[in-house]
Each structure stands twice: as C-alpha cells, then as structure tokens.
Design goal:
Phosphorylase Kinase, domain 1; Aminoglycoside 3'-phosphotransferase, Chain: A, domain 2; 2 domains; 5-stranded antiparallel β-sheet; two-stranded antiparallel sheet; disordered N terminus
Length: about 290
C-alpha cells in the first residue's frame, strides 16, 4: 500500500462559504470539479475549472475531520507561497480560513502520479527533479524552516539525527502520491513537512517506498548511481534508513488518528519493509 487513507470530502459536499472563498481567490466561480484520491488527508482535493476558464487545484479540510489537518495545511500554504521559482512545485494562488476550514488554492499541475510498482522510467524524472531541487534549494531559500534534526527530534533515534546536518530545502514526505509526472518533468506536491537538511535526504526516503514497491534492485541501483547519494558513506544512509524504520514502527503502534483510518497500517507495512532493507544492507557480503 502507499499513501491512501483519507476519507476525502468532495466538492459538492463542501459548505457554501468554502466555495465562496475559492471564488474569491480565483476571481470566478467554479463550474466543474473533479475529485482526486490518494494521500492521507480527510479533506477535499479537487481539480477545478472556473467560469472564466481558469484551472486550479483546491484543498479544503476542517478541524471536525481531523483536529491537526487544517493547521498542517496552513503550514503547507505558507511554505508553498515562499518557494522560489525553479523549485519543482505547484504555484501558490491563495489561502483562506473559513471558520474551522482551511482552504488552499494552487496552480493545477497537468500530470499524473507515478504508477506502482515503481519503474525506472518513472523514477528517472523524479530523480532529475530532486537534482533541480537541490540546485535551487541550496542554501535553503525558504525562511524559518526547522532543521531536519529539529523536525524529526523525538521521532528518529539519536544516531540517525546526528547525520542530518545540511542546508538544502527538503520536502521530507516524498512518495508516489506526493509526486506528479508531467511532459516536462516531475513536480513535488504537498509541502507541509518541509525543512532544512542534507541534499540526499529526499531521495533516500523516497527510495524506501521504491524498495518496497518497485522493480527488484531499482532502489539500490539509484542509491549507488545518483549524484545525490553515491558519494555518501553507505553506513550513513543505512543508519538513517534504520532511524525511519524505528519511526514508522513506533507510529504504527499508536492509536488511529481521527479521519485517517489506514495510516497506522501504512506505517506498519513501511516500517517492516525498511527493516528488511536495512537487514539486507547490513548483511555480510557473500
């Protein structure tokens, strides 16, 4: 399984004031909306077309669905608005609070999520996008982001945290459902967890999913050939992977959060898969 767990609302189910807020941002009322699946948020995710032909992507979530989701989306709005040109991310159009609802409006990205299982043809454009992110995002151009160590303190063991120094812009939540493939390259979406850290961190965490849901040997091949990771000591990468193993398995044992019914199962599956990958990487060579 990948990022699929939110019980998403649809455009037609959203309160009229939320529709009005989107009209205010776009300058024209929405006449067509296509709901999107994937991800863990319980909120609405809609590709919309306004009466004047404007196309956009709308996200809306309320505290009644999950008490943390609106503030997380507010953080996403703030970060996305601060991303400089050249970062492979959707453009920011506007955001509004409507009671306990948070509404975020972004440029529509005319693309599709990578297919699963991961294949080299889909992964190549994503690695190229991460190369561009590092080129544009080092030193980190977004102000007031936490360091990776700060963002993951209390989540990863100290040996892993000690290896997360760096000043590159890091997405920190890459998987297939947070990526879109377009004719001109890959785009990274959903930025609420962004931080400052090592240039290789996004690729490493994405490859955790590729190892679990990809062509055999693809994750290791990319890890040893990408310019982002090939010069990093193998045990550094393995220690950080093992830290995320601990993170996922610890989270999997916690109560199920409101509105996110399959999140803990995803975390369990990903943690167990990471345990297997770390075991293979640390196994004596034959």
């Amino acid at each position: 399984m990948h990022g699929s767990g939110g019980n998403r609302r649809r455009w037609a189910d959203l309160p009229a004031p939320v529709h009005d807020a989107v009209t205010e941002v776009l300058g024209s009322p929405v006449v067509r909306a296509v709901s999107q699946s994937g991800g863990f948020s319980p909120g609405a995710a809609e590709r919309v077309v306004a009466a004047d032909g404007t196309r956009a992507f709308v996200k809306a979530v309320s505290a009644a669905q999950n008490p943390e989701s609106p503030r997380l989306q507010e953080r996403e709005a703030r970060i996305t608005a601060a991303l400089p040109a050249g970062v492979p991310a959707p453009g920011f159009r506007g955001a509004r609070w409507v009671g306990d609802w948070h509404v975020l409006v972004l440029d529509e990205v005319p693309g599709h999520q990578p297919g699963l299982p991961w294949r080299a043809g889909d992964l190549g454009p994503v690695v190229a996008a991460l190369d561009r992110l590092v080129a544009v995002g080092t030193p980190c151009p977004v102000p007031d982001l936490p360091t990776a160590r700060e963002a993951l303190a209390g989540e990863l063991p100290e040996p892993a945290l000690d290896l997360l120094d760096g000043d590159s812009l890091v997405h920190l939540d890459l998987r297939a459902d947070n990526l879109l493939l377009t004719p001109v390259g890959a785009v990274l979406v959903d930025w609420p967890h962004a931080c400052r850290g090592p240039a290789w961190l996004d690729l490493l965490t994405l490859l955790a999913e590729v190892d679990r849901l990809g062509e055999e040997g693809l994750a290791e091949h990319v890890l040893t050939t990408s310019a982002l990771t090939r010069h990093v000591e193998a045990e550094v990468l393995t220690t950080v992977l093992d830290g995320f193993r601990a993170f996922f398995l610890h989270r999997a044992a916690q109560p199920v959060p409101p509105g996110l019914p399959t999140l803990r199962e995803f975390q369990r599956v990903q943690g167990e898969a990471l345990a297997r990958w770390v075991g293979r990487r640390r196994a004596p060579a034959r």
